Amino acid sequence: MVNIPPCEVIRVALTSGHEKMSAKVCYEIGNRHAPLFWGDNDTFITIYNELMLIMLRKIHWEKCS
Question: Residue 9 CA to chain centroid, in angstroms?
């Protein structure tokens, strides 16, 4: 069991048709040794960190471009 006190989080939701991005998201978060949780409604949750948010936004924009 893991007990994490309330904190700000980053929630990553995967849209239909982009399921392969889950591997990229998990790899990038794990590569930074950050905790990663499977949330409700097919989301990934990690503890908020400004640099993590910037990296995840960059991945999103690379995929959309």
Answer: 9
Tell me the Ramachandran region of residue 30: left when phi exceeds 0, alpha when psi lies from -120 to 50, beta otherwise.
alpha
3 state SS of 42: coil
Question: What are the φ and ψ backbone dihedral angles of 55, each rounded to 5 degrees?
Answer: -65, -45
User: Could you tell me the pTM of the whole model?
Assistant: 0.78
What are the structural domains of the chain? 9-64 (3.30.70.790)
* 44: β partners: 12, 38
Distance (Å, whole) CA 22 – CA 17: 11
User: At which residue do the structure tokens 């889950």 appear?
Assistant: 22
More confident residue, 59 or 46: 46
Cα separation, 52 vs 28, in Å, equals 9
